Amino acid sequence: MDITTVAGIIGAIGLILLGQALEGGHVGSILQATAALIVFGGTIGATMVSFPRKDFVKGLTLLKSAFTETKIDLAGLSKQIVEFAGVARRDGVLALEGRLGELKDPFLRRALQFVVDGVDANVTRDTLEAAVDAEYEENVVGAKVWESMGGFAPTVGILGAVLGLIHVMENLNDPTKLGGGIATAFVATVYGVGSANLLFLPFATKLKRKLGLEKERKILITEGVLSIQEGINPRVLEERLRAYTGEEAPPAETQKKAA
Amino acid sequence: MDITTVAGIIGAIGLILLGQALEGGHVGSILQATAALIVFGGTIGATMVSFPRKDFVKGLTLLKSAFTETKIDLAGLSKQIVEFAGVARRDGVLALEGRLGELKDPFLRRALQFVVDGVDANVTRDTLEAAVDAEYEENVVGAKVWESMGGFAPTVGILGAVLGLIHVMENLNDPTKLGGGIATAFVATVYGVGSANLLFLPFATKLKRKLGLEKERKILITEGVLSIQEGINPRVLEERLRAYTGEEAPPAETQKKAA
Amino acid sequence: MDITTVAGIIGAIGLILLGQALEGGHVGSILQATAALIVFGGTIGATMVSFPRKDFVKGLTLLKSAFTETKIDLAGLSKQIVEFAGVARRDGVLALEGRLGELKDPFLRRALQFVVDGVDANVTRDTLEAAVDAEYEENVVGAKVWESMGGFAPTVGILGAVLGLIHVMENLNDPTKLGGGIATAFVATVYGVGSANLLFLPFATKLKRKLGLEKERKILITEGVLSIQEGINPRVLEERLRAYTGEEAPPAETQKKAA
Amino acid sequence: MDITTVAGIIGAIGLILLGQALEGGHVGSILQATAALIVFGGTIGATMVSFPRKDFVKGLTLLKSAFTETKIDLAGLSKQIVEFAGVARRDGVLALEGRLGELKDPFLRRALQFVVDGVDANVTRDTLEAAVDAEYEENVVGAKVWESMGGFAPTVGILGAVLGLIHVMENLNDPTKLGGGIATAFVATVYGVGSANLLFLPFATKLKRKLGLEKERKILITEGVLSIQEGINPRVLEERLRAYTGEEAPPAETQKKAA
Amino acid sequence: MDITTVAGIIGAIGLILLGQALEGGHVGSILQATAALIVFGGTIGATMVSFPRKDFVKGLTLLKSAFTETKIDLAGLSKQIVEFAGVARRDGVLALEGRLGELKDPFLRRALQFVVDGVDANVTRDTLEAAVDAEYEENVVGAKVWESMGGFAPTVGILGAVLGLIHVMENLNDPTKLGGGIATAFVATVYGVGSANLLFLPFATKLKRKLGLEKERKILITEGVLSIQEGINPRVLEERLRAYTGEEAPPAETQKKAA
Lengths: 259, 259, 259, 259, 259
Fold this sequence. Notes:
Five copies of one chain form a homopentamer.
Chain A: H1 3-22, H2 33-50, H3 53-62, H4 64-67, H5 74-91, H6 97-100, H7 106-116, H8 121-170, H9 178-230, H10 234-245, H11 252-258
């Protein structure tokens, strides 16, 4: 479970409702089925028009990953690649073949398979980089679906409010209904601004960030595997991968021995 | 028929009108010919000033493709290119000549013609890439026409509302007409904000996305055909094109045999 | 005469005034010299502060080209360049010298002069590309002047409205003047939002687009002339330039013969 | 004196005040020390938080150049460089040494010194380009300080207005004070929107543009000096630099002789 | 202590409160626990949903550096690197080994270690540049957390105001409470707009700028150390690094002797 997603949603909505209650407002007065119909109907409709069906579905299915914890252990991954570089240097790249079965990460396995198969380094680089980019581009469309929802919701909320105000204005001669009518109209704004800022836009940002981190992880694998293919010194590779893992540099003595 | 475009428009407008009706509003009160005249006249006029005639017409004609289903079968296309790579490797590129007639896709035919004609690889790449870019740039202007409409509509809607309010304010001494006048003025806002967010901006986004997918398809063809010209191993080509089609990697055994 | 510019302005302003008249508003009530003074004085002043004098003047003089039709015949230009390529291939580049006089386009003449003079290809490319870029950058500043006007006008309009409202509020005790005062204040908003969205921003967009098309035309000339210098096959050149002209590909037979 | 800066500020503020006076408003009613305290105090404070002290001071000192005329004579500069190219070609680069003393422009002197000293062309290019970029980046931060002020001022103005309205609302029971209170609150908006749009944002735009023109001038010097080092034909250099100066091409005859 | 951060915050908030007090407002009337609960609860919640936990924590810890003075002595650093270049040129790169211990800057030490260890120049460049970029990217996420807070706060503030207005509207029949209710509702706007513009957005800008300056410092080190590895003339290196330190050029005589 992604703790910030869940705690953020509960905290934001809970504190806002709590504040509202403390000021003496009834939660009931901001629960209105018709306002929800207008705002979410209009927002979802506009987003559907904006995207092909495949992208829209991708947006919906991708949402799950905003709620699930994604552990990315770059340090462990880096260590494993350095170990493989050691094996390859000592016993040749073919010695890696037996290790492929133990790998759970399909991208790492696929990348190492290129090395074991002796595919040309340029082809390996081009293919892996194109795969990483294409996968990112394909998924990031799903995040853009939520960004789009976050863009449409407030304006559709205003649309709902204006529609409500038109209704109020036409009945202006009965002042006792004025306040209630305006209150009802404003609920559409609350739904639009609230759903965009507390849900849709934050979802989009988190999904993008997670896709970005996954992309970085695959770039680390690509760089590491290409270095193995070059037959790089494992200690130099370790130093090189440290840029991606963000670890602190080891003391100078260690570095010296590695060289 | 593009299902999300049609369902999105019907759903969005339908649910908003339904919500409005449920709250007791009359649909008639938001149907006003003069507000439509002001908002759509002003929006279309501003957009016409913004674009040369050719671009404006391109925007209108391109709209059709937001409503029609575009099936892009990258997997099938990739398979066909891999097959052609096999033919070229076995029997030489001239053997592809007889196959050109069966191709329905004009861009694929044009690209393969370069290979059959033995045109220099750099000229082939430059020409195909320039053609793909130029076609995209030329069409994307049509999407920008709708984006422009979506940018002008809300501000022209506000312009209409302010004009209406001026009219109301000048007759402020007759309070019985006040509400109705303001209601009328607000309809211009509804038209501007509604048409921009439920129609124009979603159209622009969908058109851009479809043009982007078509561009990707042509880039896949370009890469594939250039690989055929290089005489690449069809299985390596298959692996390479997989980046574009987004298919899952086959099991490691298959990959190994291919190498 | 640029038909979309003229028709767009007349249409937009005409339909808005028509709508206003149909609703019973007097055109006279939105004609106010003081509001115009505030909005246009402030907008022009802010734009003057934003740009050096030379850029500001460039913006004013460039406006003419938003109103004049610019015929760009890329197909004819491409045909002429292909013909020159044929001459150069058959009789050598010096044979082009006699043709220079008949050229009306100064950029094409200048570019071909490099070829005739036997200037090094890299120098030719660098010089022509730098000239195309520099001319575009220099002119596009003029479009940015209008963009700037379109950015300042609505905010200065709001400034004018707020100033008017302050005046109204100070005289709140005389309610008979309230409505008229507010109406007067709103006129500044109408001028600001209207001039920005119906004139300034559309002008900027059209100017940029026209400058972009002119730049593309010069890039076509540059590519064509450099190809002539390389001694390219005229039919391959024709195929290459087709990317810029956006023409459909000829049937496969024609292509084959050309190769 | 930069004429557009001075005339623009005087014109904008003058015409707005004139318009205000013509509508019967008192200039006195928009002069309020407390509103100024809130808007400018808040804006300057927010900008100080946004930038390190050095950048903030750079913004203040840079402002002077928005008010002073900067004559950039690219044609004369280009002519001088072409002349130096002639000297270098005829008598060798060392012959330029005696001319260095007469140069007033420190960057041109520094660049030519590299040539005279026989520094490697790549080192010369890297060093000069890095110096041009670094100087631009360092100065453009000063323009961003004003851009930041222009971004904060309207929102702080709204903050001031809302604070004023809160004060008004708390005393709603005394309607005679209502109008005056609202008027006072609105003055903060006038200060915020006005200072941003008539001063801060235009300052930022002009400063950026002037820095950009100065950068272009130094790029022209860099290109020119590197061409001298290459021993380029002075007439070809003249043609090449014409891209930067934006001059019209000379008649074809002149060009021909030059080659 | 970062003087502009502290003085900016105190100045902005102090002057705004002073202005408010001078106009006769009570500071107490803008102190409302429930409004704070809604605005900051909602803003922090939305930001938590937007970022993975690690990034959110990074944002919080990074804030400290907006308040602490960061002395970056590029001139001194440049001098030291030039001195090392002299040592390396005279006595070989191994002579630098003894000096590594005296270096306090871990990045400079790490970079020089590569030179001393005789690591290949391309590997050195790739590794150091990747490390500089990765560190910047990792930290800049922390600045984006504050930018995000600055984006959400005003909209959540408006949400709070609308919720308050709904409450007011439902009790419209008791006019004596109207003003106070609206005033209360507006406080949420004050909190949202104020915190975003006086704190969150300025924090984000300052953090980004400081990270950018630190990145530049490391790029200077990278360039300097790579130049040492190339065995560059220390005086040419001094000239080259001057681009980064922004110092004025020394008089021509000095330059000449250096060459």
